[in-house]
Amino acid sequence: MNKPSGLLKRGLSKTIIAAAGANLIAQGDDGSPPHFPTQAIYYANHSSHLDFLMLWAIMPAELQPRVRPIAAADYWGAGIRRSIARGIFNAHLVQRYKDRPYTRADEKTTVRTDSGSSPKQGQLTGMTKILDEGDSLIIFPEGTRGPADQVATFHAGLYRLAKHAPHIPVVPVTLKNLGRVLPKGELIPVPHLSTVVVHHPIYLQDDEPQEIFLNRARSILAEELKTEDAVEGDAT
Amino acid sequence: MIGLFDETVVSLFVSIVGILVVATIVAVLLGLRHQGSQSATLKNLNQRIGAWWIMAIGLAVTLLIGETAVVVLFLVLSFLALREFLTIAPTHRSDHKTLVWLVYIIPLINYWFLWEHWYGAFAVLIPVYAFLFLPIRNALVGDTDNFLQRAALIQWALMVCVYAISHVPAIMQLPVMMDLGRQEAEGAPLGSGGAEGALLMLFLVVVVQLSDVFQYVWGKTLGKHPVAPKVSPNKTWEGLIGGVLTATAIGAGLWWITPFTWWQAALLALVSCLMGFFGGLVMSSIKRDRGVKDFGATIAGHGGIMDRLDSLSFAAPVFFHLVRFFFTI
């Protein structure tokens, strides 16, 4: 595939960040710029189609070619979206539902569980292969987009990836306000200033049960969304 | 004459550059004296002066290009101000479709009317049509939770960020109303306000911004008694009186760039500075309520666009209408 040059991509990153008014901050009191490990599993809360663009855009340019966002094949898998996702962002497309196309009804009826039910084993082999090749992953463990100020329970994929490669840092990223820029079901983005918090990496501990790890991972994002309540949130 | 520049505009900008050069030298000398220990205040001062350079040069360049550039500049400022306002304001998810109108469509029409010099339409678009239309759009969505609060919030964002701010470039047309009369000025050609219009706008901008600067300076040096301690401990009586009087005196001294006598210029400057102070106070109340220090970080050292334009947005409509009422025919 004919891929745009590095310069073009850097321009695109800058445009995405400026348009979303993104304020990139690192977790911790030292105020140092965020740290991006060479190889990592990045995960974030999911409330907007912009999330994956934003996560890609904040990556240092030299890491971008080796970061693979995981995107749903039912949304990004056809036509122009496919060319954008694959050609520019080097996304890895996965099937959310194995044997049939994903429909709008699924978004409403999806039951989110803490453990086990999804993802399908087939989805994971693609991702573990990417990790084995030395590339990084961007995943949204909630599985689908939700309200801007909430984090749904995580699917098990994050745990299985961490178990597959426990030495690879797992980097939590909190995206604030992107869900207000382009909420689920809306077509036209409305400008808000957003904040991207890159937290300290976490690792799967030896013998750490799936539920404990997933809750630990999730609560980092949930706590961060709760802070600075003033910037977030719906009418009270 | 290039763009909206004439000799008077040039000399005004030369004075502004002179003040900024002095401010820069003072900041550099302060930095040398305290070398090594760069205090937070000093760093903030340097950032502020740097931002003032950019703002002064930006305004000069748009005035050199012409009226269209000035109108576009303020359209962009309104857009950025709305973005900051919506970020800290508690909008609801079901407001999204209304916000699309608020952000993309109404400001464009407002500034288009302004650009066409169609004052009658400009004056009523937002307070009549937009204020009735936006709640209608919200009601059609069907979410009635906190409906009144949400409708009021959206209208107020539009009032402050678009309607009030657009009265700054609207000032450029006042000299045409003074010369030809209000009726004849409708639909006057682009740039008809000329350098006189530019100077009248610069008079307000310079006086109100200097009022902010001197309130900060007097407040930092002498400030003891806060005006509204619950809103902002930094706004003191000493800063308010010192700053407003200093800026009013400067306004009186700038009578030669306006069509006014010195005491008329002084009175208009006084009212504008007081309105500017109250604008800052109201915006501080919003920020305090929402638990944020600034509206954003767009302008280094100053905060967001709204932190810099808060005083101007309250002063401009009042200045505009006082001049229009008392001086145009």
UniProtKB/TrEMBL annotation, chain A:
One of its GO terms (molecular function) is 1-acylglycerol-3-phosphate O-acyltransferase activity. Residues 40-178 form the Phospholipid/glycerol acyltransferase domain. It holds the Pfam family Acyltransferase. Residues 105-124 are annotated as: Disordered. GO terms for biological process: phosphatidic acid biosynthetic process. InterPro entries: Plipid/glycerol_acylTrfase. Keywords: Acyltransferase, Transferase. Residues 112-124 have a biased composition (Polar residues). PANTHER family: 1-ACYL-SN-GLYCEROL-3-PHOSPHATE ACYLTRANSFERASE (PTHR10434:SF11). This is Acyltransferase-like protein. It comes from Enteractinococcus coprophilus. The lineage of its organism: Bacteria, Bacillati, Actinomycetota, Actinomycetes, Micrococcales.
TrEMBL record, chain B:
Keywords: Membrane, Nucleotidyltransferase, Transferase, Transmembrane, Transmembrane helix. One of its GO terms (biological process) is peptidoglycan-based cell wall biogenesis. Pfam families: CTP_transf_1 (PF01148). The keyword Zinc does not apply. It comes from the Bacteria. The keyword Transferase applies. GO terms for cellular component: plasma membrane. The chain crosses the membrane at residues 12-32, 52-77, 98-115, 121-140, 152-178, 198-218, 239-257, 263-283. GO terms for molecular function: nucleotidyltransferase activity. This is Phosphatidate cytidylyltransferase.
